[in-house]
Structures are given as C-alpha cells and as structure tokens.
Amino acid sequence: MYLKKPLWSEGIENENRDSIGSSSDPNGSVVELVNSLQQQRVYREVTLALTTGLRDASAEFSFLRLRALRSILNFLNSIADSDSTIYLFNLTQSIPQLQVKRPP
Question: Where is region (Disordered) located (predicted)?
Fold first, then answer.
C-alpha cells in the first residue's frame, strides 16, 4: 500500500503557500482543519495497512503470507520519506495488535 496525497489537498496546499497562514486570513482555520483531517487519514491508512498485513502474514496459506510480506515491505518503503508518517508508525507500535515483531 502506497500512501498517496488526496486530490483535494493540492488546492489547499497551494493556497497555504500563497498566504503563509496569517491570523487575519479567514482560510487559516480551513487549512488547519484540512491538515488535521490529513493526519487522521494517514493514521487510518497506517493502521489499516498494518492490520491487514499482519493478519495475512499469519495466515495458513503461503500465498497469503507472501502477499502480506510484500505489502508490508511496500508500505514501509512508502513511509520512509515522511518524518510525520514514521512518527505515526512509531505510535502504532505501542498498540499490541499492530506491533511488527521478529519471528522467534
């Protein structure tokens, strides 16, 4: 799973660059809301990718385990570029169901 930016966020990011978020800007609260929603979306995608990948990695069938390991590897490669996403991944590792553990 590759984390993609939503199409609707591009207009807000361009507007944010133009108006550096001054307090008199009426769109400042909209930008904050969009940033909050963006962070929540990324958190949901991180937890979904880990949940499905770890569930399939412990499946009976080898093709499911192989597919899960590939998806977890692709997911980890996709989050390596963003510090905020790496931070979210670190937060998910405190949840027992989402912990990526080494096999014994």
Answer: 1-27
DSSP H stretches of helix in 58-98: 62-79, 83-92
| Sign (positive or negative) of CA dihedral 65, 101, 80, 88 | positive
Contact yes or no for 28/21 (Cβ under 8 A) = yes
Backbone phi and psi for residue 98, each to the nearest 5 degrees, phi listed first:
-110, 10
pTM for the whole structure: 0.59
Per-residue pLDDT tens listing for the chain (104 residues): 455 666 555 665 555 555 454 455 567 788 888 888 888 888 888 888 888 888 888 888 888 889 988 888 888 888 788 787 788 888 888 888 777 665 55
What span, in angstroms and rounded, lies between the C-alpha atoms of 95 and 65? 22
* DSSP-assigned letter for residue 97: G
